[in-house]
Amino acid sequence: MTQVRRLVRLASVVFAACAMLLAACDGSKSPDTASPSSPEVPGLPEGAVNSIAWTADDWIYFSYTVPSTSSGLWRQRRDGAAVPEQVDFKLPPESCGSAVINSLQPLPDGRLAIAARCDIADGFRSFAAILDVASLDARVLVQFPSFSGSGIAVLPDLNGAFVTAEAGGLCQGLALFGAQGGFRPFKHEVSIGSTTFWPDGVFRDAQEQPACGTTGDAGWPALSRDGKMLYFVARTAPPERDNRMTRADAAVVEVPTDFASPPRIVVSGIRSPQNAVTLTAHGQTFVCVLGIVDGKSGVWAFRADDGELVKSWVGPYRELSASPDGSRLLTVKKIGKNLETEILDLG
Question: CA–CA separation, 267 vs 244, rounded Å?
Answer without folding.
Answer: 22
